[in-house]
Design brief:
mainly alpha
Length: 55
């Protein structure tokens, strides 16, 4: 997946989720991008998410 493809897909997801009042913060977006680009594993993502919630 290219960065451009990721941005397009994430924008589509965000616009749908915003209808329900849900929104990704910049840190969440970056983690999702890293998973999609193969930079981190889902296990790494799962470990990082609780740290975002604590902020």
């Amino acid at each position: 997946m290219t960065r451009e493809q990721f941005e397009k897909y994430l924008q589509e997801i965000e616009s749908t989720w915003e209808l329900d009042g849900l929104k990704f913060n910049p840190e969440e977006k970056e983690l999702i991008r890293q998973v999609c680009m193969g930079e981190i594993t889902m296990e790494d993502y799962d470990k990082a998410v609780p740290n975002l919630v604590k902020k």
